[in-house]
Amino acid sequence: MINNQLKNPVWFALNETHKKYTINYDGLQFYDPNICPFGAFIDNNKTKNALNKYAKLTDSFFLVSENETPLFDENIISLDKKIECCQMILDTLIEVEITEEIILLSEKHIDQIYNLVWLVMPGYFRKRTFEMGKYFGVFKDNKLVSIAGQRMQTNHFIEVSAVVTHPEYTRKGFSKQLTYHVTKDIIAQEKLPILHTNKGNIAIKMYENLGFKITRDMNWWHFTKK
Question: Which residue of 70, 86, 153, 168 shows the fewest CB atoms closer than 10 Å?
Fold first, then answer.
């Protein structure tokens, strides 16, 4: 069951824990774009019409797949880029010394979370993405400088996501401590911690040092409405 879910994480998240955010078009499943501009499919013969419908709700969005290639209507939408990513799954969590005060973030921090993610990793985060799971942060000089959170979820796994640090506060171990903290929280919920990151990302080494292992390739197809 779990391995099958990991091959199509968006699909199964929208069938289980995040079902309340699901929009269905012609056999495809999408998040409400105000929550997260992600969609998933099983049959790529149905993607063209569904993407046209979803594009009426948002100017840009992603389809996530392991090997399948979505079809799309070039008169309506454009493929901006195919982002080659990898999926990592926790094997055994490796202990990390926590030297920073890690804060569970709340709704009052949403603007700060949004601004930090878009500064470091623009494109996918919405202010209501905060609703998908818990977010934790480190504050320095009275401002939020590093965060890590939880995004896609099913009955069996939770995805670590939005691991970002302000460029002026990197190389201090904030991301590693936050990722460790978020991962421990997922384990406490008796679910499997997973994450997705771009191939070649320098952060992969950090994740490996925490006990994560690369298990498969995953592709993020980024579309924009013409």
Answer: 168
11-27, pLDDT tens digit by residue? Answer: 999 999 999 999 999 99
Structural domains counted in the chain: 2
User: What percent of the chain stands above pLDDT 90?
Assistant: 96
Residue that is written with structure tokens 């079902």 in the block: 19
Domain that holds residue 60: 2-85
Q: What pTM was estimated for this model as a whole?
A: 0.94
Calpha distance 140→177 (Å, rounded): 15
Query: Residue 147 is part of a domain; what is its CATH number?
Result: 3.40.630.30
CA 148 to CA 161: how far, in whole Å? Answer: 6
Greatest alpha-carbon pair distance for the chain in Å reads 53
Residues 132, 57 share a domain: no
CB 6 within 8 A of CB 157: yes
